[in-house]
Write a structure and sequence with these properties.
Layout: E1 6-7, H1 15-25, H2 31-39, E2 44-45, E3 49-50, E4 62-67, H3 78-85, E5 93-99, E6 104-108, E7 117-120, H4 126-136, H5 138-145, H6 149-153, E8 164-168, H7 171-177
Antiparallel strand pairs: 1-2, 3-4, 4-5, 5-6, 6-7, 7-8
Length: about 180
Amino acid sequence: MRKLEVRGAKNSNSIEEIEKFEQLIKVKLPEDYIEWLLKYNGGHPALDKFNLIETCSKADLFGIDRFTPLGKEYKVNLEYDYEALLNRIPNEMIAIAGAHFGDQICLGVKEPYYGKVYLWDHEMEAGAIKFLYEEFGLEIAMKNTGLTEEQVKNYGDEPTYKNIYLIANSFTDFINKLYAYEEE
């Protein structure tokens, strides 16, 4: 994993703090992500843009707002995000960073997603589609999401993979593919 300049990184973690978090979420975190938590623990990387491997209906340019730190002394932290996003993102993933526009960067913590990094699109989560449909009608839900009538009606309430897009096959690959945006 390459070294990055990270602004606003919090105090580094101990292995014991990381193990305590792993016990809470009942998974073993990937080693490269543990290495990141030990070194940086949150913050905003100077290289903060990334591209998706999978295509998405959103913009082509994606960015990190901040990596989420571990530690209850921070208002927003991994444990807080884990609890806040429980039943909103699939249970095979945890949110590890905030992306632009309220989306989350997630890390796979269970097979077959283990170790991979994904973008979770909050605007297309199951509850949001159902809300649009029930509150504003089918036509508005279809227009705002780009989904067909059948897709809107069958979206459901449970976390889904319909709004999850692959960024990298490992956390190390994710860090290595970050870049700075340069206007042409």
